[in-house]
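for ur thesis appendix - Bowman-Birk serine protease inhibitors family domain-containing protein. copy paste whatever u need, i formatted it the way the template wanted (i think)
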Amino acid sequence: MAIILVAQAVLIMGVVFAAVSIENSAALGEKEITREPAEPEPNPGQLTCCNKCTPVSSPPSGLFKCQDEREFSWCKNSVCKACQPAKTYRNTFSCNDVFNGTCGPRCSKN
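the 3d part is after this line
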């Protein structure tokens, strides 16, 4: 009788373990995809100008991002690949690219 109870307990634990492992893994025949935070791909160019060029990470990795918010023509006419609407002012845009070394020269006061 004791042997049957032990066998049932082992069988139940095996079924529970199998169900949990199937739930936490990829389905049969599928590759499990692990996503690691990708290092941003630097834009090889430079913006026409940028006043707020800040390091992307701390300690600095040599990658910079321009925090300027300007009219759309500034973003469109520059080398920026990812112009996005700015969050603070209407009808202003920011460049969401990451640059290697520096963003570009400082903007003139005009």
